[in-house]
Amino acid sequence: KRILVLISGNGSNLQALLDQAAAGRLGGEVVAVISNKADAYGLERARAAGVATEVLPGRDFADRDSFDAALRQRIDGYTPDLVVLAGFMRILTPALVRHYEGRMLNIHPSLLPKYQGLNTHQRAIDAGDDEHGCSVHFVTEELDGGPVILQARVPVFADDDATTVAERVHVQEHAIYPLAVRWFCDGRLAMKGGQAWLDNQ
Ligand code: GRF
């Protein structure tokens, strides 16, 4: 299967996918990485793995619709089976999301439906939660609201700050994101009737 990854930053989740692909455990190949930030470290990770990269800066476009039209054209040029959002920090238009519905995944650093949006780690601490985590979900028009595929939990300790919790969550992200991608590549995972569905093949 052909996997295309969208990033904006560090790309540690991208690295987890590249590592699993190199080990033959992803069920697919990362064919390209597109970033909206030219200085995203994840672009270096992609280059080091011999993966094609492209940069599409938001400021080059007058509005969201024209950015997303250009993005869609770039993505579809690689004919991916799956589009993976891995720290891609732009909100996508409903038209673009609909175009990839059922074949676009995101990972969000909270136990959805809790803490959609930004600053999830600090919000979990401020709320006094004793557990937190991350969720892989299909992308739908509702921001961070698509059907959840897989979640991992981590404890929150009294002496934690947002950085220590984020590190703990990241370890889990790197474990569960490649797993969900593999399920999709193996044809076991689909979105049906607005729900995520894992088949027992
Ligand atoms: C992760 O915490 C992910 O859950 C969120 O953005 C962050 C990306 O981190 N969507 P990285 O760029 O993969 O290191």
From TrEMBL:
Keyword Transferase: yes
Record site feature (Raises pKa of active site His), residues: D144
SUPFAM superfamilies (UniProt xref): Formyltransferase
A Gene Ontology term for the protein's cellular component: cytosol
Annotated active site: H108 (proton donor)
InterPro entries associated with the record: Formyl_transf_N, Formyl_transf_N_sf, GART, GART_AS
Catalytic activity from the UniProt record: N(1)-(5-phospho-beta-D-ribosyl)glycinamide + (6R)-10-formyltetrahydrofolate = N(2)-formyl-N(1)-(5-phospho-beta-D-ribosyl)glycinamide + (6S)-5,6,7,8-tetrahydrofolate + H(+)
Keywords for the protein's UniProt record, in alphabetical order: Purine biosynthesis, Transferase
Domain of life: Bacteria
GO molecular function, one term: phosphoribosylglycinamide formyltransferase activity
Top-rank EC class of the record's enzyme: transferase
TM regions (residue ranges): none
Pathway: Purine metabolism; IMP biosynthesis via de novo pathway; N(2)-formyl-N(1)-(5-phospho-D-ribosyl)glycinamide from N(1)-(5-phospho-D-ribosyl)glycinamide (10-formyl THF route): step 1/1
The name this protein goes by in its record: Phosphoribosylglycinamide formyltransferase
Gene assigned in the entry: purN
